[in-house]
Each structure stands twice: as structure tokens, then as C-alpha cells.
Amino acid sequence: MIPYPASLKATGGAHTGVGPVNLLEVLDVNGNLYLWSDRKGNWPSVIFAAQTAVPPSVSLPVDVAPGQYVAFIGPHEAESGIGTDPPLAIASVSFSGQGAISVAKAGLGLCWAELDWHNFHVPTLPAGAVVDAIYVGCLIVATGHWEELNVKLFSATFPDGALLYANSGSEYEYARIDDDGFSLSEVSVAVIDVFGANSASAALGQALFTQVGFTVYYHIVSAGMVGVGDGGDSGALEIGSVPWQPWLLSVPELTFHRSQQTDVGSFVIQNLSGDTLSRDFEKIVRRSALEGAQFVFRSWQADAEAAWIEVHGTLTVEDIGVDTAKLKGKPAVDPSQLDTPLEIYSETCQLQWGGPRCGATGSTECSYNYQTCQQPNRIMGLMNNYEKNFGENPASTALNVINRRRVI
Amino acid sequence: MPNAATTPTSNASDTTGTPIPISYGYVWATGKRAAYYMLQNTHTSPTIDFSRLGFWLLGHGEWDGIHELWINDALVWRGGNAPPTKFPDKYPGLTQLCALDKAEAGFVFNFHSGCDSPLGAALSPDSVGPDQRVDKMWPMFPPAILALPWSRIAYYGLLRKQPIQNQVSNNGGDPNNWTDIAPIGLWRALKCRLFDDQGNQTGYAFTTNPIWHFVDLTLRRKIMPDYALDLSAGPDLLTDAARNRFDWGDLFAAASYCDEFLANGRRRFEGSYSFTQQTSLQACQEKILRCCRAFSTEYAGKISVNIDMPRSSVFTFSRSHILPGSWNASDQALNKSANRFIASFRDVMVPQCSKIASITCGYGQNPVVTTQDPHPLVAGDWTAIGGTDTTYDGEWNVKSVPNIINPGTIDEIDPSTFTLVSKGSNFPASLGAGGGIGLLYSRFKNRTPEFWHKANMLARGVVGLGIPRQREKIKESLELDTTTWDQASRITRYERDRALGIDQTPYVTPPVVKFRTSMFACDAAGNLACAIQCGNHITIDDTASFTYAGEYEVLDKSVYLITAHASGSGGEIAMKPDENSGELEFSLGPYNESIMYDSSDPTQAGWPSVPGSDPGNNNKFTSIPLAEGIFSFFTGSAQSGTPFQLPSTGFPVANSMAWAGPEGFGSGWSGHMATIKLCEASSALLLTLIYENTNHSTWHGQANYACATWLSSDTPTSDGTMTWIELTLLGGEKILFGRGTVADGTAFTLPTGYSTSQMFAVAYPHDGVPTGGHNAHWVGAYVDSSQVAHLNYKDGEGNVWHGNASVLVFAWKNNMTTWSTETLDGGNWAQCPLGSGLIFGVGCALSVADGATLALPDAAGDGSTLEAIVGSSGWDYAPMDNEAHGVYAAYLDSSFGVHLQFGDGEGHIWSGAADVFALYLSPASAVAAGVTVTPSSASVSAGSGVQFGATVSNNANQNVTWDVDGIAGGNVTVGTIDATGFYVAPNVAGSHEITATSVAAPTASGSAAVTVWASGDGGGWTINGS
């Protein structure tokens, strides 16, 4: 059984006289999100909620206000720099994407480590999104002499640009943390061990930086939408509602089988809005790639805030007519179309460059051969160009002959 | 014959272009040969010239390991049995194995499990496995070879100097004496992630559970193919998005169902398959699902797997639900259906070649087996014995077979006896008929047993008027890959009967029903029709159809959404409501629990297998429900070096606690025991038992083990001496297991909240250092009444020395006050009811004499599980002036007799004392609870009261409810009774029945009769006419 909420049983269907609305949301390969319904209104979006979900391990700097949304942006690159003054023998420093740093030094003087994170992938915000604030943050878990650095650093960077720590460590007896520049493209901090500056004894400390990234607070402004949950023409929407365009004309019959297969037919979208020379839907098709776009379809019972049917899948453009367009849906994972096992023994490396299995961290994609491999430890290929090929089979092997009676 | 001039390194072109296999469970595989070479001109002494070396690629990693390696049809390696030694010649550091057949000196076997090669590691050949660095054998290939670690591919390297069959001489310098190698192995293939019902990864281990295979394959191929896999840390955890693609509640329920043990002692469904040819993911998934009677569905982006298992109806359709004109019921069209189902599989079990008539074994001698008929075995054969239900069940090497008398003549008499190579102590001296034996070599035979639907064959066998019907056979082959006959039988008959109906007379073909209902339909129980999913069990009542009323399974569900057809041109769109808007259409097939077979059909053809001969045939376990999760406890015994496995339903290795004690000593003893060097069930689930003499020579033995593992969020704590795990049973009672390795004389302290009066503690030898050059006559470990652990060795002169003991502690908090205790023949037992009607109990009997019988509580009787581990705790029961080779026997027999003996390998056996720790789970129905009401009868005057009491037997929960004449609590007419059993009579005379009913076992009740006398006028008494 589909685990329906009690609200659907209580209010759904004929109970209240409110009919379900058909909702089709589409996310294309370029990150564009389209929300189409068969009538005007605003309803929550499954894709939007998944995109903007804050990782459960991230703690928010401030509470989310009614009507606000939150998106989290994490780094995809990290690097470190280490220095001392005067030059010291630093026993150990390690650094990873998370930013684990450990310092053990000998002699008088300062030593520091600069940690940088880059390449923040900004998620696609829905149309009408207005950013209220962006906080940059990182969680520091320190031990040893640095244990007082255990803080969550937050700094509001937008809209006023002030670099104000909501909660930061200040210099104390052993170490301090400096912000070395927070921007939307880079987070940089410096850990400075000050203990040894005035002492001959070694200062030891370890710190782990996690949850590095930006937390984006925003709300959505939309005008002219009328529907359930709509706050009117003022543009102030309820929490969890996003604007939908009433372009969805008809939806297909959905058939589920006692197998992983789900039959999905064609969704019909109107192709009228805009002008006759440049229809809105045509513009979407030309600037985007609906081929392979991900879709979520729901038959949504607004008064119960639950779906009678929810289907996830992928789309292909079937036909774009003068007034209507057909988008054909099918399951996102169609196991009948997936070669298995996928990988073969080959001189071509089968891994995805830069992925966890490959491990390459360079900036240029390889050619998936040994000559351009950046991580030969991981290359998934057979290298047998050294072999002599005499065209002979190995000599036949003398096997024991097993020919025994079986008595049962 | 190959020679130095003609044997090149192998051409690997037969490997390139072929798929990298994905294999699960047990596989019988050689692998793709990626490199091969014959050594020559090495100038070594002894020469290793003409040794062959090569690498064979097995498939996608990470594989778990190997059970058996065969080369040229000879078993040369059994996992864990042969300790690696150092390779002695010009290639120092190579791991050389002592081959079982001892054919020659040079044998190197390096297995690389197929994890990721370490990033940044040098490509220098320095690995002997199981890591994924470059193998150490590469330098033996010709120079300038590009050696790579084959990241993420499981592979092995072999070096072996293989003699030809029927060698004329063993001249190492003569190339004609040595030949190529053709290896093949019995492997434990891919390790899989294991999950709980929330999708939390609880483990990463080898498993035969098809559900985890399905999840792994789906992840590996599509959902999350790119992840890092470290040898130590395991694979990356699933991302939240990947985890959200699965319905973990359904998956976990299905995995648990597969994991259950059936009456035949086997898990319900296990899977072993190797996908070596490129096909579709769907085909691979279907094979996995077929092996466990399962189907997969996807809803709202979540993939789930459900097994066709008994389940409740989720909706009852009545006439009012059926849309007019939509009802369509008929027979299924079977004219093209198969009725001759062929189960095509390779048998993971060993076919039985002979039945055992008897086994005899003199003390310290090689067992002699007599078969009921002449057998085909020859000396050197590796065999499997099963079905004796004794320690003889296992794998044995044949030492000798009598000669055939009058071979080749009409008077030929073939041998019916053979002698096994002794495996040490603890094997019965005499055994009667029962069980069978087979050749390990003949495992993995292709089998194609047929399962005919005879009724359907006859139904379709019309020939002509007056001509008897023939059986028309239409075949269908079910590819089941590697399995057992039992499972193949159950699955194939299910497929057959699901398609054709039950094979019986009169034959009734299965119906198919199709109808439409409203999208918002709701049945009398408030269930919504729209919530029905394919595979659900639904009911058609007789108001919908008198003929077709019954139980059905939903095969297809179509949803006609509320929508309209859109059409238009020229800037206009016309909308026309869909005809079936807002309707659901269901296609149904029969729901039939009788075809969900849990036992194979004994009437079907098929050769018998040696019971329990499949690899890794692990013990049963007792699973106890926790308030949140489940915990399992199991015991067993096995030879040193043998791994044991946790239940495959997601129990993480980290959530386990295991203990081991000596059970016997092996045949390779090399002196008298001075101490036990190591007795351990390691955190890697590996058993070790090593005895040591005063000269530090060692030999192995068999070990008993017990293991507790839990699938919950509970985490162990440590106080420096002991590691504790506290679990909360279903119902709320808290229990505690503790494990620690402590020096003799060390005391432990229970965690806060636990009392030593509610605790059982035993100990086993863990390790010790020989002192004084004494040889031990006994060894015993125990925990005294002050919670001090002891491990003592003693010789015949009264010398006593010590070592470190492994301590097992169980305690209960009784925080819900449901525990009860009893003492039976000196054994102490504690039990408590679980909320589901189960009874959980634990017991401990200390210093039990060899040969005594362990008295069990009633609840631990028939129908319950019983897990027990026996360990040596003392001596002096039968003083014997002999020096022991080790513990000769330590076990609980099928009649619950306790055995604890020592032996010297020379025919002398003497007794010791045993500590027995036992745990059981009893279904409430196993031992019927009873309620006794006291007094059994009473007479009271009207309006007065009497106190009744109730005792619940066979259930720790003494709570009862009271009624009078069937009325709970009574009333003013029959009298009232309160929760304590105090009865107040009504104001009128009469007879009534007081009944007390057990809360824990509601079917148990007891009664008492009460007679109410009318009170006389003026307050006097009237005594019934007298």
C-alpha cells in the first residue's frame, strides 16, 4: 500500500469536493526547473525541495523565517598553505577537502596554515527568488592546545557585505583563527599557532574544519498567481509554495506493473503563450534540453496537502505542434536499457575521470588511456602491449581423468 | 609438452573486450587469464625453473575470499588451513603456501580483493594481497613489463611448479616433468553493503542474501556507480539522494524473510550468480528476484523489493466499488504457457556418492567409514560428510581405500570401506547408519531437474476421439545460476503453479480478473483503492462476484487521472474530458499462499546431496526482538582458522561480540600441552585455537564459539577491563553482555544499575605463557563469586600456573520487573516474557561434571531455540596422571548431556568440569502457560468478600485479569472482582465462576467456583437448609 497520510483519507476526493490538480515539474540537464500545472495555483515542488534541502549535518546560522527558503552551497576544491616565521620544523600537517590540520612544531616562532576552499556550485534558484542573506560558515573541532578554537564561524556576506562573526574564536593563549578572505568564490581561513612565539616548548594542536560553505536565505516573489496557498497579488507566498505555470493541458494514463516497469504516456503542454513568432514553450525548448529532463508528476490533493499518485521519470520531446507540445515520459531507470555488466576489459580506461574511483584532481580531462592517465594506480585497463603474441595456445594440460561410478 | 622454447607469456587478447563480471555469493571460477609465463634460466637452487606463474582476473571487486583452490583437478588450498610461510629463494618476501597435495615446493598464491588501489602509491611490485597494490610476482615476468594493480578488479596470482601426471622422475631441471596449470576456485564473491530499515548502512560484508545483491547491483550499475572503496574503510556511504531512491522498509523486510531458517535447517532464500555476459540490468535483476520469489516495484522515485509471501489483504472490493460495465473475469489463457519447468542450475552442494553405514574411530586413530554399498572413493580424495549430526559432518581427506578384490573379473568386489585422515579429537568412537558422503570435486554440477504440471499436460494432450490423452509437454527453462536442489525445487514449483494453478485433480485453471473503480474508492475498513500497489493482496467479496469471490494479487494497476484530451490548431485548443477520468483499473491474478513453498517436494526426481555440504553453511541463530531493532545470538564449533559469519540481515561486524573456548585438539599435535597459546573468536570473525608445548611447538584444535550481534543503534562501552553492550528487549527490559580478556585474578565490575545477583559469568582460556616447564593435565577457566576471573593450568604434581582468560558476562536489570528465575539441578536460569508473547531466557550451569545432563526450563523445551557453549572450568573429577594434548571434547549432546574431557593422544581420556552458558527463545505456544486460581472454590454470604489468588505457570509474567461469569471485573448481579482478585459477592444467592486470565498468554486461564449464600433476616446466617 502507498502510505497515504491521514489527511488524504480525511479530506481527499469526494469528501470536500476539491478535485486534485495535475502537477508536472521538470528539471532539465542544464539545471532549469519548470513547474507546470493544469490550473493556476501554487503548490510545493518535490524537485525544488530536494534541490534546496540543507544537508542534515549542517547547522543553520539563524532560524528560517516564515516564507523563507534555504539553500546550502558546498565547495568542490580545497587547498592549503603552510608557513612559519622564523622557519621551523613542522612535524606534521595534513589537509583534505574537509580541512584537517595538525601542527607540531619545534622552536620559537609562529607557524600558520592557510586553508582555502573554492569552486562553490551555486544551485539553481527558482524564478522570483530574492536572496535575503548569505552566511558563510565552517565548523572547527579542535583538540590539544587549540581546543578553545571549537567554534562555528558564521559571517553574513550579503546583502550588506559585512564580515561579522556570529560566533568566532578570538586569539587566546595558544592560537587564533583569522579570516583570510571570504567571498562567494572562496573561503579562506588561517590558523595561527601563537603559543610557540614566546616559548621554547613545542605547541601542539589539531583542528578539523567541516561544514564549509554558504547558507543562502531567500524568498520568492511572484505576482498574479491565484490558487491554493496563494497570498494574493502582493507576491508574498506561503512557506513551501512556489509558482506554477498553468500550461499542463492533459496527462496520460499511468500503468504500474508487478515489475520495476512503469508505463508513462505523453504529457501535453500548451504552446500558446508568448506571441505567434516566438512562443514561450518553444523558447524553452530552444534554450534548454528537455530531452532526458527529469520529471515528477503528481495528482495533488491541495486540501490534504498530499498526492494521490506520484511518478518520477524522464522525458523526451515527442512532438511540438502549433498549439500544443507533447512530452513523453518513461521511468528514470529503465533497467532494460542498461548494459550490465557495463565495463569491459579493455585498453580504454572505464572509469569516469575525476570521480572517486579515478581519483584524478587535475584540471584537464584525460583521454582514458594509459598515456594520459593522471592516476596510474587507478587506471582500469589491461596493458598488454609488452606481450609477445606467438599466436599459440598454452600447452595443453594433463588432467586427471575422473570416471567413477556413482552409487546412491 | 611445453618447453622453454615454446611457452610464451600468454596472449591476453582473449581477455580484452569481454565484460568484467559481477558476481555474488559463491562462484566457481577460474577468471580471465591476463598474464602467464614459464620461468626459465633462473639459476636458483633448488631450481624453480619451469614453474608457471600468471594472473587471473575474477571480476568487479571487492571479493571476499576463497574457500578452495584446485589446480589440474587437485585440491591445493583450503582457506585458512595452511599458514603462509616465506618463499625461500631468490624472490624473498613472496608468500609461499604449503600446498595440500604437497606436489612440489614452489606454490605462491596471492589474492587481491579488488578494492581501489591507494592513490599516489608507487607502482612498485610489493604486494602479496589482499590489498590492491602491484603484485610482487611481476618482476618474474620478462623485463620492461608494465605492472599495474588492476584497481577495483578482484584477481589472483599463482606461481606453481606443477608436475605432470605420472611423473617418471622429479628432476627439477627437466622441463618434461612439469606442466601448465589450470586453476579453478570456489570463491566468496562480492561484498555488499547491508542496511537497516531506515537505509542506514549497517555493514559491508559477503552475503548470500539476494536482496542485498539486488541493492548492490542497482547501486553499482546505475544509482551510485562512482564511489571510493578502501580496503580498510570499505566503500563510501551512500549519498542522501542515492539512499532516497530506495524503500528501505520493504527491502529490509524482504531481506529478513530471505534470512529466516526453514524447517529443513536452511535459510529460505540464498543467491549465488555470476553475470559474465553483457545483458541488461533488467535481466540480471530478474535472475536475482527469481531466486527469492520476489518482484520489484518503483513508486514516487523509490525502488522496493517485495517477496511473494503470506500477507494481509489491503482492500475488500464489493459490488459498490465496481464501475458498471468494467467487470471482466475469465480463465487465464494458457494455450501457450509452458508446463514442463526445468530448473537449470549448478549445485552448490556436493552430490552424495554413498550412504554411510557406520563410522568407527579408535582413540587417536583415523576414522574408518563403512558405506552401505561399494563407494567410488580413492586415497587422496577430498570429501564432504553430512547428515550424521555429529562432528563427523564436515570435509575430510581420504587416507586409504582397500584394494578391489578380483578387479576386472566377474568376482570383483569393490571396497565398501575407507579410512579418513584424522582431524584430531572429539569424534565419536562409533557411529551407526546415517548421512552420506560425496566428493568435493563434484560440487557445482550442472543440474536440470524438471517440474511437470501433469494436470496441465494432460489437459492439453487431446489427440483425437477415442484416443487417450497424452501429456503435452511445453518446456521452459528457469536459469537459477548457482543454488541448491531444495531452493530450485521450491522456486520452480512456485513459478509453475503461479502460472498454471496447483497441479491437482480436478484441475482448475487460474482466473484473471479485470475491473475499474473510482480513484477515490474506499472500503469498509477505510482503505483507499488508490493506495493499492501491484503485488498487494486484495479481496473480492461475493457481492462483487459470487463466482469469482476470493483472494487476489494485483498484477497491473492503471490510473486514469482526472484530465482532458487537448487538441487544437490555429491558436485554439479544444479540451474534451477523458472518458475514464478519475478511475482506476486493476488486473488481478490469484493470491495463493499454498504455492509459496517452504519445503521441497520429496517426490520429485533428483540425486541427493550431502546435507550441509554447501560452503559457509553457517549455524542457525536465535534472534531476539529488541525495543528498537533485533539481536542475534548463536553458538557453534569449528576448526582453528575457520571464519564464522553473522546473520546476513545487515548485522554489522562492529556490532558483534564473540567468545571462544577449546573444544578439541587437532591431529597435528606435537607434544603435550603446556598452555593454550591463543584461543579467540576475533573481531574479524575468525576462530583460532593454538596449543603450545614447553618447546614452543604449536598445534591447532577445534574451538567452540558464541557470538552476540545486534542490529540497533546501541554502542558498546568499555571500562578498561570489559567491553559492555546494553540492549533493550522488546517490552523494555534491559540486558547486558560483556566481554573482556583479563589476567588470572582480575576482577570486573558491572556497569551502574546492574547487580551481581542478576548476572551469569563464565570464562574461557585466551592465552598464557608456559611457566616452569610443566605439562598440563588440565586447563580450566571460570569466574568466581567475587567476579574474579581465573585461568588455571595444572599438572599431575599439583603445579598450577595461569594465563589470561576471556570472560563472558550476561546480566539483566529487571527494570520492568518481568524477569523470573529458577534453579534446576544446580543450574540457574532467568527468563522474561517479551511483548510479542515470546519468552527469552538465559541460563548458566557451573562446574557440571562430565556426563551430567543439563536440566532445562520448560520454556527451553520443544519449539524453542537453545544456544549453548560449553567450556572447561576445572578438574579432579577423575584424576588421571597423564599429560594432555589438549581439551579432548567440550560439547552439549543432543540429549543435553554435558561432555568435558581431556586426552593425551595415546588412548587416555579423563574428565573435567564444565561451565555451560545457554540462551533460548521460546514462542509462547511452545510451552503452554497455565493459570491456577486459589482457593479453587469458596463459599461466601451475599454481599461479603473473599480474596482469590492466581499463579501463572510457564510464563514469567504473573499478571492476570479477573472476570466473573465471563464478565470482566464482574458486576452487581454476579459480584465484582478487583485487579487483586478480591471478590465481593452480590446480594442474592447463586453460583458463579471466577476466572483469571494470563496477560502474557491470554489463552491461559484458570477458574474457581464460588457459592453465594443468601444472608438471613436480621443479619443472621442461613446455611442451606441445615
**Gyration radius over CA of chain B:** 34 Å
Instruction: Please summarize the sheet with the most strands of chain A.
Output: 7 strands, antiparallel
Helicity level of chain B, as a percent range?
under 10%
Poorly predicted ranges of chain A (pLDDT <50, ≥5 residues)?
161-172, 197-203, 222-241, 385-408
| Largest interface, C-beta within 8 A | A-B, 101 and 134 residues
| Mean model confidence by pLDDT of chain A | 69
| Rg measurement of chain A, Å | 29 Å
Main β-sheet, spatial strand arrangement of chain A: 2-1-21-22-23-18-15
For the residues shown, what is the average pLDDT of chain B?
85
The helix-strand sequence of chain A is HEEEHEEEEEEEEEEEEEEEEEHEEEE
Tell me the span between the first and last alpha carbons of chain A.
50 Å
What does this structure look like?
- Helices cover 5% and strands 39% of the residues of chain A.
- Chain A has helices spanning 6-11, 46-51, 280-287; strands at 21-27, 33-37, 42-43, 69-73, 75-85, 89-90, 100-106, 110-120, 129-144, 152-158, 175-182, 186-193, 204-220, 242-243, 248-250, 254-257, 262-264, 266-270, 274-275, 278-279, 294-301, 306-320, 324-331, 339-340.
- In chain A, strands 2-1-21-22-23-18-15 form a seven-stranded antiparallel sheet.
- Chain B has 1026 residues and is mostly beta strands.
- In chain B, 6% of the residues lie in helices and 41% in strands.
- The model of chain B is unreliable at 1-13, 80-104 and 1016-1026 (pLDDT under 50).
- Chain B is globular and about 100 Å long.
- In chain B, helix 1 (210-223) packs antiparallel against helix 4 (281-290).
- The interface between A and B is large, with 101 and 134 residues.
Summarize the structure.
The complex is a heterodimer of chains A (408) and B (1026). With 408 residues, chain A is mainly beta.
